[in-house]
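pasting for the record
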Amino acid sequence: MHVFVTGGTGLIGSAVVAELLGNGHTVLALARSDASALELETAGVEPLRGDLADRKALRVGAARADGVIHLAFGNDFSSVDALAKAVAEENAALATLGDELVGSDRPLVTVSGTPYVPGRASTEADPLSTEGPVGGRGRTVAAVLELASRGVRSSAVRMPRTVHNDGEGGFAGMLTRIARQTGVSGYPGDGTQRWPAVHALDAAVLFRLALELAPAGTSWHAVADEGTAVRDIAAVIGRRLELPVEAVPQETYGTLGPIFAVDQPASSAHTRKTLGWEPTHPGVLADLENIVP
């Protein structure tokens, strides 16, 4: 396929682009800057200048493609208003992409987080939350999946709280950055809450499989580690950075504090059985050993 990708130079996006190219697909990717365009060209990708607010570029990209993978998101978590703005921008972008694909039976793969279900690991059958700081993304994904009734082979790959590669990325990466800033490898609450995780290269394989195989209106979990205690994550970070490990106030993590404090394991049993996806790269604790002191 000729695939249009948004967010093609990020941690996940660059892995997805490489996975697509390595499996016979060609890629057209949205590029927000000259630097991004050059990075894409170097990787063997045709850049399309524009961003998520550029409706014309999004329509052009979708019109030229046999399928679309959406990964871009304005990751500004500095305030509730900034997060709401990013969610609204993504909603409008996906509506534009979806409208261009209506009636074509072409795939549209979008991204979200795994849902939180009290008392157990969430599954692919559980709905996304439409409340709280990122509830708007849940509503956006629901609208994308509803495009299945309008001739779009839409699907959603749900990502865990930490998508990592060489010790970087996701919630664990945020803990590392905050530890460097504060001099303490911290965790909210008692640290027994669990976060699911996946290596970016394993997640990339699932995005390709969803593009190629996923039926319309379906959701999939890119989860390798079902749930790792945050205290264990902080312990590795502290050891690698030679910093003390201790509980810190939830407010340390700003708008994401309430999410950081929740036990939120997730399962990928259905995804593995149905799409034949099997993670092969290091788990989160092993990968965090790559943190550079």
